[in-house]
Automatic annotation (TrEMBL):
In the C-terminal section; belongs to the saccharopine dehydrogenase family. In the N-terminal section; belongs to the AlaDH/PNT family. The keyword Oxidoreductase applies. This is Aminoadipate-semialdehyde synthase. Keywords: Multifunctional enzyme, NADP, Oxidoreductase. The gene is AASS. Residues 200-402 form the Alanine dehydrogenase/pyridine nucleotide transhydrogenase NAD(H)-binding domain.
Amino acid sequence: MFRLRRRPWSWTRGCVSGQRWSHGPARVMAIRREDINVWERRAPLAPRHVKELTNAGHCVLVQPSNRRAIHEKYYEKAGAIIQEDISEASLIIGVKRPPEEKVFPRKTYAFFSHTIKAQEANMGLLDDILKKEVRLIDYEKMVDSNGFRIVAFGQWAGVAGMINILHGLGLRFLALGHHTPFMHIGMSHNYRNVSQAVQAVRDCGYEISLGLMPKSIGPLTFVFTGTGNVSKGAQEIINELPCEFVEPHELPEVSKHGDTTKVYATVLSRHHHLVRKSDGLYDPIEYEQHPERYTSNFRDSIAPYTTCLINGIYWDPHTPRLLRRLDAQRLMRPVEPSVKVTEGSPELPHRFLAICDISADAGGSIEFMTECTTIDKPFCMYDANQHIDHDSVEGSGILMCSIDNLPAQLPIEATEYFGDRLFPYIWEMLPSDATRPLDQEDFSPQVRDVSAVLKKLFRFCLGFREHAQILKVSGRNRVLLLGSGYVAGPVIEYLTRDPGTQVAVGSVMLSQAEELAKKYPNTIPIMLDVTSQESHLESLIKDHHLVISLLPYVHHPMIAKHCINKKVNMLTASYLSPAVKDLQNSAEEAGITIVNEMGLDPGIDHMLAMECIDQAKVDGCTVESYSSFCGGLPAPECSENPLRYKFSWSPYGVLLNTISPAIYLKDNQLVSIPPGGALMDSVTPLDFLPGFNLEGFPNRDSTKYAKPYGIESAHTLIRGTLRFKGFCNAMSGFVKLGLVNTEPCPMLSSTASPVSWKELLCHCIGVPPSISSDAFKEVVYDRVGRDDHRMEMLKDLIVMRNDVGIRHSTGELETKHFSLVVYGDSNGFSAMAKTVGYPAAIAARMVLDGEIKSKGLVMPLTKNVYNPILRRLQAEGVQYTIKSSFSE
């Protein structure tokens, strides 16, 4: 007859009443359901571990899961309670990370978080853990006194990975025209247990020993990197084949003349392939302290004699890589066959056929392994010549297997193995109270140090995550863009059209950078204040191939010095300042390019001028005069304000320009305007576009361009600024009232109480300084009349006019008139953003692609620079017209 089986010790729904316990008060822990991956069938503890806990009086909750490889009835038999709600538990353990929304606040969790190296995919989890005050015990950081991990699946990753790559070799050999014994080895998860998988490998080995491997394939060599559990697990499988282990220096011989009735294997340690860059020697102590001083000769001394690489070594950005893309290209070259080949018995395309990257470290020691494969799609082919991955095992390339959850293919054995290593520490984790300080817990060093180290690491990760994002994809051009204002949009849009280019936007306004990152692919937002975070700036520069600065020119000397120190190219749209000009020799010695004045004015004006001047010289003409006026203006319908102007670039720069001195040449007379505001009284009406009602005034020192332009004989040389009529009159009044002044303001002096700009403005408009930034913006918006439609329809305008007087050999004077008029888009880029951003972006692309090769300080004054940029600007809609007028 059937009897109702009562749960142990009369537990009801929960675990609070009627508990039997020993060795202290009973605790409640939970094994959560694995739900992050469809193939995740492991558990952190096996039923026999649970039985010990329940026998000791503790309550173990197990979330039900039909996916778990060990059936829940075995956990229930061990005394666990199978239930969905695990919020009662103070300790919750799993294998992989839970989704953020399933993390309970102020609990102790144990799992692999994969946040230690600031892995981008798990940064949301990191933020959530910190926010919810969770105590995380990350298995990855549980180490012994020697720093070796004590809780891991490593051996089973090696076992599963080795079985998989043997299966993959069978498929690859078949695609190359060879049936081999490897065809009868399946993927690890196809076997009920590891014993069945091992038997399949043994059967394969038996056929190899009978001489059933095609002779034209030649001897097979397997190279294992590392000596840890991962490598040992993989070696256990290769030992089921007829295998001879040889020393690395023996590989050249056995790869050519070895016995095909067996396979060869070698295990690499650091001393086999790491050498000091300076003298080719290896010092293990120095390497631990300064790995950047070393390189790997694996590509030359080992890889050419390798059939299959099984990689299980740890890599970080400071250590040498095993293989780079260029190395893979060399390894794909054909080798001389050791036996006669025929159409039916073809030779291999190259000796290096496959990589099993058990480390699954994307962009790590195998640079071109940029994305892990999956159990569903375990293999891909990397074609180094095309720098592409494809899924087929046919065609050209190196077979890659880089599954990042290999032990999940052997879930029962992996659970038992892992549980044996974790279980001794469960006893001390059970009493953990996440609301108590860490020093009040009775933890062993292995557990206590994890929590202490993780707190430090989490703080470090918040900064290091930027570094990890930047370096996550190899083979990309990495651009650091400083500044996130209006001009940044076109620069990013243009550069990221190429999927091989990544842009990191460094800005003190992180929200702006984040909006840009949402809008454009391959874009990373970074919080950066170059004035107070110079060391952070330096570390970012080191990780990039090009720095583009859209910041005010005063920052450029400091940025340029860091670029020179780190040998990183740089580009700016600003005028070449004397401080940057002094860095010419340093930039040349560093072998870098610093492109300057690559915007609108300066930038497009230079290029239009030089295109005309160079052609005039080719035609045997002389340039007698040069006049260039440019202005960023509101569209006429948006100009109804006292200044007839709206700021479309740095307000500081606009205002400073009104009180600056100016020098220009007019009919061979040098005209000098003193600083202090006299410039606003030196205005000239301009009617080259009568419908615009424009005026202009000289801009800084125009005469300094005579030599760079090569027009020292010109009688007139003036560069100026355009505004709508009325601007200069109103601005002159502001100057005379002292509202535009570079002198310190007493109210804002260092002796006054500290005040921020926000506090000052809050005082002016009568709101408390504690108001949030968003609320403050709303108040200001209300004060100026809140007109959403007007804001959305607001457009700007760029007008540029170059007049070049050319004297022909016939004596005729031709004046070429270059006109550029660009409107901003209501829902797109402003005219200023387009005409500054696109020239900078195009020049940046030319630097990245090697079109601009000159070293040192570069300006857009030579044909190899200005010609392609002007053509490409026209393709972006920046069109200019040319007309000529003639006189005697």
